[in-house]
Write a structure and sequence with these properties.
The complex is a heterotrimer of chains A (337), B (337) and C (341).
Chain A (H helix, E strand, L loop, with lengths): L3 E16 L4 E17 L3 E5 L6 H8 L7 E6 L2 E2 L5 H10 E4 L13 H12 L6 H12 L16 H13 L5 E5 L7 H18 L2 E6 L2 H7 L2 E6 L2 E7 H6 L4 H9 L41 H5 L5 E4 L2 E3 L19
Parallel strand pairs in A: 3-8, 3-9, 6-7, 7-8
Antiparallel strand pairs in A: 1-2, 1-4, 4-5, 9-10, 10-12, 11-12
Helix pairs in contact in A: 3-4, 3-5, 4-5, 5-6
Chain B lengths: L1 H32 L4 H9 L5 H10 L6 H14 L1 E4 L4 E4 L6 E2 L4 E2 H36 L4 H15 L2 H15 L16 H34 L3 H8 L4 H29 L3 H6 L5 H11 L2 H29 L7
Antiparallel strand pairs in B: 1-2, 3-4
Chain C lengths: L3 E12 L2 E13 L4 E5 L6 H8 L9 E8 L2 E2 L5 H7 L4 E4 L3 H4 L6 H12 L4 H14 L5 H4 L9 H13 L5 E5 L7 H18 L2 E6 L2 H7 L2 E6 L2 E7 H6 L4 H9 L51 E5 L2 E4 L4 H16 L3
Parallel strand pairs in C: 3-8, 3-9, 6-7, 7-8
Antiparallel strand pairs in C: 1-2, 1-4, 4-5, 9-10, 10-12, 11-12
The chains are: A alpha/beta (337), B mainly alpha (337), C alpha/beta (341).
């Protein structure tokens, strides 16, 4: 395996909760609580989980839109965890972000040309045939008509707007693109267009993606490897095939089982795992294994000892005392994390 | 909730102290910056017949030569325990709360303010009742009949209402109703409510309506905008889907949602007015706080101006506090921690 | 006559830019105890249809045409006041986003009590008891305590359960759910779908599920109606639509969707272009500018509006392609490409 482009080690983000006359900090929302993963050049890592699992916060931490509480972020081997905004600036070219909502993430008063060309101006980059030509090339690349340079976002449909958003991120030839729910606001037929576009661009421009999404089928389609998050922790990380075909963590199993299947024939016989209740609040997450309150396999140890994220098969990491589909049943780890 | 109120109360006291320091500094420093000496200031207190020596003694005794901090300390102490003003020829007692002592009228400021407060409160509260009822009702009807003749007419009148200053509408109304039609008094009279409620209302009718017209116009526009927004909310659709009568939908679900921003503005408006409806009181020669302030400024009676300023600041701060507390009552999502 | 029958329903909105034909000639029938799934993308007219059935367009700017028969009563021509008395009692609705669909200033209980007391002359105390019962039935723990909570104090799943409790409080015979699980997490969505399946059995209501998610309709629906540009373009049993779809748009939807129950395909097969603006619906077949097989209609696609025609045993399709051509395209071109490559 080649060198990781992005490396995240023990990343944490705690939002303080204050109370009382003096606004003392009484607790913390542990939105992201010690997660580690690598993104290798050229691959797509999918980050899935339900609301409140910390996947969006993770994206914002990596792009340094918010300050991490702890841990390290390495980009191409350089520690950027606490790098100043000034020194980050050249790096901002290399890491770009695609947002969920193509309606609110584009300034309605700027033309498409201005939006897509903004990165050139901000970074002070001169291009061979001028910015306009460069922008039009990018518009063509994402499947938009280059003649639409002077139009405004409201003249476009949702799918076209998302293409504009993608064009903006591509302007400076980034190395890593973080896509936060890139298709969830789009119509089904448009989702597929954008998914295909992202795949084509990856091939053509040698891009690396970190895709953050809640839709397990989209993530499976687009990702090479997938990390599953639950309440600020990664519970399972594996390549696409093993994660979807032999998931080890009970939560991953439950997630996959919950996805509605577009096949009415088998619906009566289908075996389903149904979790009870909602995801607990990240303000007061359950101790030790955070999933134990909803897990049907939970035992005493799950309430007292936090399972470490361990490699149980090649490239397949799981944080569970009683994993399913494990190659050999390992002794429950009694090491404290 | 309780800690929130305590915190807000402490904060209010701090706010008032800051306001008093600033006003104090302005009123005591500005004349000096303009070149006035302690003796010049003292001369205003002892009268024109006094000799230079007497003035000098008075300046010393009144503490004009002390540092600003000491002078402010004395002023603040006066509010709590009262103060004696020894200006040479005699000693004037100013009982607590001493907001200053006017040597021009030879009276402490506080009792003056207390005398005038009922006038201002009567004016402000009476007008407030009228403008809230008229403004909100017009706004709701305009929103429901958006684009109709009523809506256009009401909004045109409202635009005129917010554009015309009190001294203009006041004068016009005086000419029309007092001098012309002779159905109201020409201003300048005030009967305390307890003496005769009917005369009280009759005397204040014209000022009320004039003042309310100005505010009602703004409230109508605000209510209309709020209602238009709220009536598009999903929960209105839910209310209709339940089979509620349209009137219940509008009042119980729509108006309740639209009223919160109006509550905020109302608190601030009322707070400001209680500190003196300067223009209205001058136009109609009503002996309220505002008129008092104008007269004090005309006489350059600094202690009086200072007293009015502090009372006005007090009302604004209290109004803010009340609004914040009411907000939590109206909107359960506002959690007071 | 069926319990619910729509005949040529039209909902048109006059605007400054022209007439928006949100729903343009929609007909279907639905019996008690059955579930109809209406599938479509944004602007297809699926939500406007549901609001039309409930009579929520009455008194607005919309122009309604056609007939809606509910249990033998015609609703399009009925007075707004009469339809109001049916709303909430005979027919009820569940909305997409339970957070914005509940009034933030009133407790969950009081909102259910309100819904119940509109149509039932009972004391507040009795209504409150009923609200607690309903909250319990939809699986909210400690309903006697949660009845006094505000919507924002509930989690997303709990809120949608409370919305369902509110809709079912007057025991309606027709329940319309507009994207009931779109705003929810996937594990919660599964719970809500289970709940709706169970409740429908208990209440024996006619259920209409409106969604863009083919997975959701496949889980619940007996019959499926696919809408495009304000019209029904395909109607059939769930098996018809998933096993033997005959409209190119339905094929496109199936090809656009990555599926977890099959091996991963190398490429998704999206529909080109975007859904049409309802002000400028393309002439002829509204779908023809996006249709891959438009050239096989002999030029009729852009000139003539195709009719909704029965192809076999209640399976209706609105397409110019001859029936045999459609079937062979499905069997030889589309179906294999949806399987793993």
């Amino acid at each position: 395996m080649s060198e990781p482009l992005l490396s995240v080690e023990g990343l944490e983000k705690h939002f303080p909760v204050t109370k009382g006359l003096l606004q003392r900090q009484v607790a913390a929302v542990k939105a992201v609580d010690g997660i580690s993963f690598d993104v290798v050049k050229g691959e797509t890592l999918g980050l899935v989980g339900e609301s409140g699992c910390g996947k969006t916060t993770t994206g914002r931490l990596i792009t340094r839109l918010i300050e991490p509480t702890g841990g390290k972020i390495l980009f191409e081997g350089n520690d950027i965890t606490h790098m100043s905004q000034g020194r980050m600036r050249p790096l901002r070219r290399d890491v770009q972000m695609i947002f969920q909502d193509p309606y609110s993430s584009l300034n309605p008063r700027h033309t498409v040309g201005a939006i897509v060309g903004a990165p050139f101006r901000i970074q002070g980059i001169k291009t061979e045939h001028g910015t306009k030509k460069a922008v039009q090339d990018i518009l063509e690349l994402v499947g938009l008509n280059p003649e639409h340079y002077n139009r405004y976002p409201h003249e476009f449909s949702g799918g076209q707007r998302q293409r504009i958003g993608i064009a903006r991120t591509l302007a400076l030839k980034p190395k890593l693109i973080i896509a936060d729910e890139p298709v969830s606001a789009l119509d089904v037929s448009i989702q597929a267009q954008v998914v295909n576009l992202l795949e084509d661009l990856q091939g053509e421009l040698d891009l690396t993606y970190l895709v953050i999404a809640h839709d397990l089928s989209v993530v499976r389609h687009i990702s090479d490897r997938v990390a599953v998050m639950y309440l600020g922790k990664i519970v399972e990380l594996a390549d696409r095939k093993s994660l979807y075909e032999s998931p080890m963590h009970p939560y991953t199993n439950a997630l996959l089982s919950a996805v509605p299947i577009p096949d009415p024939k088998g619906r009566a016989q289908r075996e389903r795992i149904r979790l009870q209740g909602d995801v607990p609040s990240p303000l007061n997450p359950p101790p030790a294994c955070r999933f134990h309150t909803r897990c049907w396999k939970a035992q005493e140890i799950c309430k007292t000892v936090e399972p470490p994220l361990e490699t149980l098969a090649t490239g397949h990491q799981v944080a569970c005392h009683f994993p399913e589909n494990a190659p050999t049943t390992p002794e429950p780890a009694v090491t404290t994390a | 909730m309780v800690t929130y109120i305590i915190r807000r109360l402490i904060w209010s006291v701090v706010m008032l102290s800051i306001v008093s320091i600033i006003t104090f500094a302005i009123f005591f420093l500005v004349p000096r910056l303009a070149g006035a000496t302690s003796e010049d200031l003292a001369a205003r207190y002892v009268g024109r017949t006094a000799s230079a020596e007497q003035v000098k003694v008075a300046a010393e005794k009144l503490g004009f030569n002390d540092p600003l901090v000491v002078q402010y300390g004395r002023f603040a102490k006066g509010i709590v325990v009262g103060a004696d003003y020894d200006y040479g020829p005699g000693v004037e007692r100013c009982p607590a709360p001493c907001f200053g002592y006017s040597f021009l009228t030879r009276l402490p400021v506080w009792p003056d303010l207390l005398d005038r407060l009922p006038v201002t409160i009567s004016l402000a509260l009476g007008a407030a009742v009228i403008w809230v009822i008229a403004g909100v009702a017009t706004g709701v009807l305009s929103a429901l009949k958006r684009g109709s003749f009523f809506d256009r007419a009401a909004m045109s009148i409202a635009l005129a209402g917010v554009s015309m200053p009190i001294f203009f509408t006041g004068m016009v109304s005086l000419v029309l109703f007092s001098y012309g039609l002779k159905i109201t008094v020409a201003g300048g009279t005030y009967t305390p409510f307890l003496t005769n409620p009917a005369t009280w209302a009759y005397d204040l009718l014209l000022p009320w309506i004039t003042l309310a017209f100005l505010y009602a116009a703004g409230y109508a526009r605000l209510t209309r905008a709020g209602m238009l927004e709220t009536m598009n909310e999903d929960y209105i659709r839910t209310a209709r889907a339940k089979g509620l009568r349209e009137r219940t939908v509008v009042v119980k679900h729509g108006l309740r949602g639209a009223l919160t921003p109006i509550l905020t503005i109302f608190g601030l408006d009322l707070g400001l007015l209680l500190g003196g409806a300067v223009l209205t009181e001058s136009t109609y020669s009503l002996p309220g706080i505002g008129k008092y302030a104008i007269d004090a400024i005309g006489r350059q009676d600094l202690p009086q101006v200072m007293g009015v300023t502090l009372v006005a600041a007090f009302f604004v701060v209290v109004a803010n506090l009340v609004v914040d507390l009411l907000y939590a009552v109206v909107d359960p999502r506002v959690r007071l921690v | 006559m069926s319990f619910l029958e729509l005949k040529d329903l039209r909902v048109h909105f006059p605007t400054d830019d022209g007439l928006v034909k949100s729903v343009d000639g929609l007909s279907f029938a639905l019996e008690r105890g059955k579930t109809l799934g209406i599938v479509g993308e944004s602007g297809s007219g699926k939500s406007v249809t549901s609001l039309g059935i409930l009579g929520l367009h009455k008194g607005g700017r919309a122009k309604l045409g056609g007939e809606i028969w509910l249990d033998g009563e015609e609703l399009v021509g009925a007075s707004a006041e009469h339809v109001r008395t049916l709303r909430g009692k005979k027919m009820a609705m569940i909305f997409q986003d339970p957070l914005s669909a509940m009034h933030p200033f009133y407790t969950v209980g009081s909102q259910i009590v309100e819904a119940y007391r509109i149509h039932n002359d009972v004391s507040k105390k009795v209504a409150r008891k009923h609200a607690i019962d309903m909250l319990g039935r939809v699986g909210i723990p400690q309903p006697d305590r949660r009845v006094d909570s505000y919507p924002h104090e509930f989690s997303g799943g709990m809120r949608q359960r409370a919305m369902i409790a509110m809709a079912l409080s007057c025991d309606p015979e027709l329940l319309i759910a507009d994207e009931p699980t779109t705003a929810l997490d996937v594990t919660v969505q599964a719970q809500i779908l289970d709940l709706m399946r169970d409740l429908q059995r208990d209440f024996n209501a006619a259920l209409i599920i409106i969604t863009h998610d083919l997975g959701v309709v496949a889980e619940l629906a007996d019959d499926i109606l696919v809408m495009y540009g304000g019209k029904c373009i395909e109607y059939g049993t769930a098996e018809d639509i998933f096993e033997r779809p005959e409209h190119p748009y339905t094929w496109g939807l199936l090809g656009s969707m990555p599926r977890l129950d099959r091996d991963r395909t190398e490429r998704l097969l999206p529909i080109k272009g975007s859904p049409p603006s309802l002000i400028n619906v393309p002439a002829g077949c509204a779908f023809h500018p996006r249709c891959t097989f438009e050239d096989r209609t002999g030029g009729k696609a852009s000139t003539e509006v195709p009719q909704l025609v029965e192809t076999e045993g209640g399976h209706l399709v609105r397409c110019h392609l001859p029936r045999d051509t459609r079937r062979s395209i499905w069997e030889t071109e589309i179906k294999p490409s949806l399987e793993a490559s």
